Amino acid sequence: MLSENPRDDMKEILFEEEQIQARVAELGAQLGADYKDKTPLMICVLRGAAFFFTDLCRRMDCKMDMDFIAVSSYGHGQASTGAVRLVKDVSIDMTGRHVIIVEDIIDTGLTLRYLTKLFKARNAASVATVAFLDKKERREVDMNVDYSGFVIPNEFVVGYGLDFEDYLRNLPYIGVLKEECYS
Ligand code: 5GP
């Protein structure tokens, strides 16, 4: 069970707000330069990427438009079901567009593989992937992310958009929960 003060539930803080914002600024500068004259279509994968997406887009100094998609990944608990289901689709036509998919974290790689295939089938001119966190050792499919914030070990993390049973998304830092929170 979670306590009323989220900091008390943390076994470890992996990244504090300042580190997160510094890395997002770097990624934004890089993406802004790489897509300077391409008017990328930025796609936010709801709900986990919400904070990262809005921070990142504001750090990209280029013309862009934005859309939102939701897929099912984890339900309640920490184990992925393996299945990816489209919950909410985008509404902008992506034919001929340079699409950038923005995810909170890449774990097995199933979600990003599914979305990349989907957008290529919709005739995007190019599809790039950005994930704030990368759990490299958990990959189950051959899927590399084009831009990533930090590579992290195989631990369940919360904060900066990432939830535990729908809570804790609002934390400005990224942490690992104490074991007792799961019981
Ligand atoms: P994948 O399809 O790559 O296995 O999983 C991607 C999704 O799983 C992420 O968008 C995220 O919703 C969820 N996920 C994977 N690892 C974690 C984690 O450590 N913490 C949280 N809160 N969600 C995770």
Commentary on this structure:
The chain is of the alpha/beta class and 183 residues long. It has one domain (6-181): Rossmann fold (3-Layer(aba) Sandwich). The chain is 21% helix and 29% strand. It is built from three helices and nine strands. It has a six-stranded mixed beta sheet, with helices on both faces. The chain has a three-stranded antiparallel beta sheet with strand order 1-9-8. Strand 5 (98-106), helix 3 and strand 6 (126-134) form a beta-alpha-beta unit. The longest helix has 18 residues, at 17-34. The protein is globular. The N and C termini lie close together (6 Å). The structure holds guanosine-5'-monophosphate. Guanosine-5'-monophosphate binds at residues 48, 73-74, 80, 103-111, 156-158, 162-163.
Mean pLDDT: 94
pLDDT < 50 stretches: none
Bound molecules: guanosine-5'-monophosphate
Largest beta-sheet characterization? 6 strands, mixed
- How many domains make up the 3D coordinates? 1
Shape: globular
By helix and strand content, what is the structural category?
alpha/beta
- Give the count of helical stretches: 3
CATH architect. name: 3-Layer(aba) Sandwich
Counting DSSP E segments of at least 2 residues, the number of strands comes to: 9
Strand order of the biggest β-sheet: 4-3-2-5-6-7
> H/E element string?
EHEHEEEHEEEE
Q: How big is the Rg?
A: 16 Å
CATH class: Alpha Beta
In the CATH hierarchy, the third-tier topology is known as Rossmann fold
Distance between the termini: 6 Å
Bin the strand percentage. Answer: 25-35%
- In which range does the helix fraction lie? 10-25%
